[in-house]
Every structure is written in structure tokens, then in C-alpha cells.
Amino acid sequence: MKVQPARLAGVKWIEPTVFEDHRGFFMESYNAAEYARNGIAATFVQDNHSLSAEAGVLRGLHYQLHPKAQTKLVRVVAGSILDVVVDLRSGSPTFGQWESFVLSAANKRQLLVPVGFAHGFCTLEANTEVLYKVDEVYSPTHERGIAWNDPALSIDWPVTNPTLSAKDQIYPSLSDAELDFVYQEDER
């Protein structure tokens, strides 16, 4: 497994070891001891699985406030997505900046999204399935979001008219969002 830091401190880009032969492939999608050796010590408590039936479905930008803030480990098992993270940590040198990653069934890569980041993705193919682990259970009262098309963020999404949920259509801009995250120097 290769773990590389992303441009935004705390975000990690993970490439699992894949064993392929004429039958197909085998890989460990998660091994707590191996992840801990690579600086990922989250204790995951819930797995989430989404299916998007068409390309252009955009989910996000989501996060949960403390004490229910979540670290996420995201991967795609069918299709592909453009996965986006936005730094929400007060005092961070990259506050309000975003970074994107292509995750797909073909590349088998994973993305670690730490507490303090909004997360969202846009499907690049029909019938895309996304699996992600979280280290805190979902809490509707702590759930928040940021408008996917906030002009201050200027995220380069692959669509201009995505398919959105009702709640994703009404999230506020970053400047109006409720945040409670603070940057720590040692988050790299």
C-alpha cells in the first residue's frame, strides 16, 4: 500500500496493493494494522454505500459538526467519481481551498478525508457505487453542508447542471456556513 499526502494537510491519497492474474484481482481494501502503520489510526464504526444511477449526480459538499465530526475513507467499487474536499479548519493556511481526485473501480484508489473537511463527489459514469467508512455514526442534528457551486470556492466540477438532492440544493455558501473546526500544525 502506498499512502501519499495530498496538497491539503491531513488528506491522504491511498493506493492499495493489488494482486492481478488471469482470474481477476485480489486486494485488501482495509487492514487496521496496515493503515495504522501508515499514520491512519481512525477507528471506523460505520460503512456507507451509495449508488448513483446516472453520470452527473453530485452529492455534497457534506460534513458533520463536533462532537459527531467524521473522518471518511472513500473508494469506488463500480464506475468513477470526481471526489472533492474543501478545507474548513479555522487557522489553516489552506482554509477554503479545495482539492479533487478521480476515484474509480479501475484505479482502486482510496481517499482519506479527515475531520475538518467538507466532502462531495460527482459521478463520471452511470451506475457508480461508492463505499466509505466513517469513524463516527451519522447524526442528522450535526449534519451540515456547503453549496456545491459557491462562487468563492470556484470548484471545477465536470458538470454545470448536476442532479442534486433537495438538501444539496439549499446549502449555504462557505461564508455563511456553520463551522467548528480548528487547524492543528501537526495534521500533515
Automatic annotation (TrEMBL):
One of its GO terms (molecular function) is dTDP-4-dehydrorhamnose 3,5-epimerase activity. The active site is at residues 62, 132. Pathway: Carbohydrate biosynthesis; dTDP-L-rhamnose biosynthesis. InterPro entries: RmlC-like, RmlC-like_jellyroll, RmlC_Cupin_sf. Keywords: Isomerase. Pfam families: dTDP_sugar_isom. CDD domains: cupin_RmlC (cd00438). One of its GO terms (biological process) is dTDP-rhamnose biosynthetic process. Transmembrane segments: none annotated. The record marks 138 as: Participates in a stacking interaction with the thymidine ring of dTDP-4-oxo-6-deoxyglucose. Gene3D superfamilies: Jelly Rolls (2.60.120.10). It catalyses: dTDP-4-dehydro-6-deoxy-alpha-D-glucose = dTDP-4-dehydro-beta-L-rhamnose. One of its GO terms (cellular component) is cytosol. Its EC number is 5.1.3.13. PANTHER family: DTDP-6-DEOXY-D-GLUCOSE-3,5 EPIMERASE, THYMIDINE DIPHOSPHO-4-KETO-RHAMNOSE 3,5-EPIMERASE. Catalyzes the epimerization of the C3' and C5'positions of dTDP-6-deoxy-D-xylo-4-hexulose, forming dTDP-6-deoxy-L-lyxo-4-hexulose. Homodimer. NCBIfam families: rmlC. Belongs to the dTDP-4-dehydrorhamnose 3,5-epimerase family. This is dTDP-4-dehydrorhamnose 3,5-epimerase.
